[in-house]
Design a protein that fits this description.
By secondary structure, this protein is of the alpha+beta class. It is built from 28 helices and 20 strands. The relative contact order is 0.11. Keywords: Membrane, Transmembrane, Transmembrane helix.
Length: 725
């Protein structure tokens, strides 16, 4: 027992190194609060998503629908919540949110480090070189610069383990390796960052192909077909997330992928960025604003283009590349990794490399920022660095070898920690997740209305010039905007949303609103814009500019230096559930733009279905029994037939019943739901029960049962063989 514990010293050492970086988040409970262009991807996207996940898991529910984002949004379908990623399930169901976030970082970086150590050991690299590789990769730019993007680092952290089992599969196509690899791929996909998964599968497929060529393996076709079967089984294991995500993609603005020109030119990586392998800040830093130009087409973005694995690792990896390239009797596997390093480097350079043509075709055409291939370049370079270090150590005796490794690991750890320790700003959770001053000026019946943020974004005035170094008080002040999706921390309903896959209807509605708003020295809101907001249940407008519209009352103003925030209130906003007795029909997108200039959307609803229905002006009442995530229960009374409009996003999966009988839900007012109401008193129920989720649940459950059954069978067979031996 003692010997076994002693043999685990590398794992304990790695745990100590990772813990030393993140322990500061626990005392007191704290979060990273790194700003980005226009907002913070942490405070306005990743943390709100994890907060929604935490609330739902601790209430034994799935976060299928979120009322408070983007006029209602299928947040589960977007996938970035990572609902079924096992560490997320454990962490967010067991721990309070303020402890869950530090633990998420700790566990993610431990998975990365221990996975990298295991991968390198499986490649016959000694313990010290494997520790060196684990530290180098885990605290490389690939991981640390993406601390703001939880889905990215969680996905990247699984790379070492998945590659290890891909190699196991290459060497032995057993049922056990087939099943374990399928499960790992499934977890890889369920983290929720599809781009990294797709890039990884592309590279793993290339690995199988290249390794087969180098080995002149005759059964390459068999290996390739088995790998395809692994992917099919992976998709069935992940169907519970995959099917809703595919459905959302079909209804989103990315249905047909992204224009290749946009992919390659919007956030490019330049040859010049390769200098950051020597010094991550050689071209500037996001921290102090020296790399924060909004001219992304020319400069790119710091955290997307910076590649640093440490000075010693990059030096060793380059030596390894030359050694393996010119080696007479090549190590086939490591030489394959050299080729993959070159491929990922070329792909990350976008238009500057001949491989750019690949981004014109699926699946690469669905994702922006080809520079993210540099995450894999860094990963492969660290493997080559560990290989080279291991090579050098073979010619050293024991005592000098220990001193040498101690020096190399210490210098690399110091190098990486000195670069990144103070890069990301840290704030106390109770301060940064507490309601800002503006929140206390809003009516406390949060479910009765929406807020909307309009006007210029003030974040970039600080971020572009100064980054975030010594600027935290400004960013705290900017939280007064209650910007999307920061509002979910306080259960506020926001008309807008910061989402990865906005639906086409939501996007169209935003376009119509933008056309009606004009900005000069202040915000000049047209009467039609005001009525459109009223029809969408918007009671409060939060703005960094004064609003020129007498129909809004200014109820709050706050100022810090030259920055201001205002809150304006409308007294004529409609309830979320409203009865209309007048409608018009639209037949095209252009019709919507035209009709909204002609009608009063608080009195007339726009429908997309040609119907014959005579309505008369009447009176009605809606009593709300339930207004929950994905369920509305209403008692509706109307003296004459009418149309009940719910100013909540129109999306497949919603079902409606009147007095227990199913009724059709129609799209209305671009992105709302509507049903026809007969006269009288009725019990009306809306519920979100997406077929894509239910079908995916059945497929995933069945697939996991098959996986478990086959694993148990292989285990029994292994035991029988041992007994026989």
């Amino acid at each position: 027992m003692r010997r076994r514990i002693t043999s685990l010293w590398p794992q304990f050492f790695i745990f100590f190194v990772v813990l030393s970086f993140f322990v500061r988040l626990y005392f007191p409970p704290s979060i990273f609060v790194t700003p980005d262009f226009g907002r913070s991807d942490l405070l306005h996207l990743n943390l709100p998503n994890k907060f929604v996940l935490s609330q739902n898991l601790r209430s034994f529910k799935f976060p299928l629908w979120q009322n408070n984002i983007a006029q209602g949004y299928p947040i589960f379908s977007e996938a970035i919540t990572g609902t079924f990623f096992i560490p997320n399930i454990i962490i967010f169901s067991a721990l309070p949110f303020e402890i869950a976030i530090p633990t998420l970082y700790l566990v993610t970086f431990l998975i990365s480090a221990l996975g990298m150590y295991s991968l390198l050991r499986s490649l016959n690299i000694n313990e010290y070189s494997s520790i060196f590789g684990a530290v180098s990769f885990t605290f490389s730019a690939a991981m640390v610069l993406r601390i703001s993007h939880l889905g990215v680092i969680q996905t990247i952290s699984l790379l070492p383990l998945t590659l290890m089992f891909v190699i196991f599969f290459l060497k032995k196509t057993s049922l056990k390796n087939f099943l374990v690899l399928s499960f790992l791929f499934s977890q890889f996909l369920l983290v929720g960052f599809a781009q990294i998964f797709v890039y990884a599968i592309f590279l793993f497929t290339s690995l199988i192909f290249l390794y087969a060529i180098l080995k002149t393996k005759k059964n390459f076709i068999k290996s390739f077909l088995l790998f395809c079967l692994i992917l099919i089984f992976t998709f069935s294991l992940s169907a519970i997330q995959l099917l809703p995500a595919v459905e959302l993609t079909q209804y989103s603005i990315r249905e047909k992928g992204v224009n290749p020109s946009t992919i390659l030119n919007s956030i490019p990586m330049k040859i010049n960025n390769l200098k950051t392998y020597i010094n991550p800040f050689i071209l500037g830093s996001a921290k102090n604003g020296t790399y924060n130009s909004t001219n992304w087409q020319n400069t790119g973005i710091f955290w997307e283009n910076t590649t640093y694995i440490g000075l010693l690792p990059i030096s060793l990896s380059l030596f390894g590349v030359f050694y393996l390239t010119f080696q007479k009797k090549k190590d086939k596997l490591f030489f394959t990794i050299v080729i993959l390093t070159a491929i990922t480097l070329l792909l990350s350079l976008g238009t500057l490399a001949p491989t750019h043509i690949l981004f014109s075709f699926p699946p690469l055409s669905f994702f922006r920022v080809p520079a993210r291939f540099n995450l894999f370049t860094q990963f492969f370079l660290v493997i080559l660095a560990a290989y080279t270090l291991n090579l050098f150590s073979k010619k050293m005796s024991s005592r000098p070898k220990f001193i040498f490794f101690l020096l190399v690991i210490s210098l690399t750890t110091f190098d990486l920690f000195s670069k990144w320790w103070s890069y990301h700003p840290i704030g106390k959770s109770k301060e940064w997740l507490a309601p800002p001053e503006s929140f206390y000026k809003l009516d406390k019946n949060f479910k009765d209305y929406r807020i909307a943020k309009i006007g210029e974004n003030t974040w970039n005035n600080i971020f572009v010039k100064n980054g975030w170094e010594n600027q935290s008080e400004y960013y705290k002040f900017f939280l007064n905007s209650l910007e999307e999706n920061y509002n979910v921390f306080f259960d506020l309903n926001q008309l807008n949303g910061y989402v990865v896959l906005p639906t086409k209807r939501f996007n169209l509605e935003q376009s119509i609103m933008l056309e009606a708003a004009k900005s000069d020295s202040g915000l000049e809101l047209s009467s039609s814009f005001k009525k459109l907001l009223d029809s969408q249940n918007v009671r409060y407008l939060l703005s960094s500019q004064e609003i020129k519209n007498n129909d809004y009352s200014k109820i709050f103003e706050t100022e810090k230096d030259n920055f201001k925030y205002y809150i304006y209130e409308s007294s004529s906003y409609l309830p979320k559930f409203s009865i209309y007795y007048s409608f018009q029909t639209v037949n095209s997108i252009q019709d919507y733009f035209q009709k909204y200039k002609e009608i009063d959307p608080t009195k007339t609803v726009l429908l997309e279905k040609n119907i014959k229905l005579d309505l008369e002006e009447s009176a009605g009442e809606v009593k709300v029994n339930k207004n929950l995530e994905g369920e509305y229960d209403l008692l509706v009374t109307t003296q004459k037939p009418g149309i009940l409009v719910v100013s909540d996003s129109f999306y497949p999966g919603w079902k409606a019943k009147i007095d227990g009988e199913k009724t059709e839900i129609l799209p209305a007012n671009v992105n709302s739901k509507a049903i026809f109401l007969p006269e009288g008193k009725h019990h009306v129920n809306f519920s979100f029960k997406p077929f894509s989720f239910n079908l995916g649940l059945i497929i995933s459950l069945a697939s996991h049962l098959i996986l478990l059954f086959l694993l148990l069978r292989t285990k029994k067979a292994f035991r029988r063989n041992e007994t026989h031996i």
